[in-house]
């Protein structure tokens, strides 16, 4: 049997199976499997990275340590940062590139932002613009603090899970303890008491 005849027969068999929509899906899967890109395409949206803000802040600190101006560093990091931080960095970079005062640029950048990391970054950038201190060290410390908060939250969730699992485990082991540990002792004592004529 030639390969082309086998492919035609396979396509007809797929179309003959129940459901037209299912046949079309199977044909698409068959075509995608034989294409140059054998990896399946993701069908669902990616889960946001909880450490994305800390990573973006580390990247911003690295850019500032490398000598980039604040506007260029903020614009570079904004492309990969998670959303509340990305929009604030983008606005600040645009305002700074236009020549706005750094204090007012960072104040306008966080207008309406509810994320604590964004407001802390803006507060540090305003303080750095007023005093002339380096921003890179403060941004690195902010990233470490964000990682510490996430670690503390993860530890708290795991400890809470350990407490919550104690109830069902107790409900499972208590009847077994009663049936295998207490009841035989009580039956044995009751047998001795009743046989010995104490009652």
UniProtKB/TrEMBL annotation:
UniProt topology in membrane: Multi-pass membrane protein
Highest rank taxon of the organism: Bacteria
InterPro entries: T2SS_GspF_dom
Location(s), subcellular: Cell membrane
The keyword rRNA processing is annotated on this UniProt entry: no
Residues passing through the membrane, by range: 173-194
Keywords: Cell membrane, Membrane, Transmembrane, Transmembrane helix
Cellular-component GO terms for this entry: plasma membrane
Type II secretion system protein GspF domain location: 57-179
Principal subcellular localisation of the protein: membrane
Protein name: Type II secretion system F family protein
Provenance organism: Nocardia aurantiaca
């Amino acid at each position: 049997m030639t390969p082309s005849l086998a492919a035609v027969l396979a396509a007809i068999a797929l179309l003959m199976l129940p459901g037209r929509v299912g046949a079309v899906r199977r044909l698409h899967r068959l075509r995608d499997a034989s294409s140059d890109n054998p990896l399946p395409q993701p069908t669902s949206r990616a889960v946001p990275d909880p450490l994305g803000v800390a990573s973006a802040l580390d990247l911003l600190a690295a850019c500032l340590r490398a000598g980039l101006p604040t506007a260029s560093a903020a614009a570079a990091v904004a492309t990969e940062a998670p959303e509340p931080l990305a929009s604030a960095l983008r606005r600040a970079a645009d305002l700074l590139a236009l020549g706005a005062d750094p204090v007012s640029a960072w104040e306008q950048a966080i207008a309406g932002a509810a994320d604590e990391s964004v407001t802390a970054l803006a507060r540090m950038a305003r303080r750095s613009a007023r005093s002339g201190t380096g921003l890179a060290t403060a941004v690195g410390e902010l990233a470490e603090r964000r990682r510490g908060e996430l670690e503390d939250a993860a530890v708290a969730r795991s400890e809470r899970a350990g407490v919550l699992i104690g109830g069902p485990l107790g409900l499972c082991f208590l009847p077994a303890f009663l049936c295998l540990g207490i009841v035989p002792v009580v039956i044995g004592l009751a047998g001795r008491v009743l046989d010995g004529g104490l009652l």
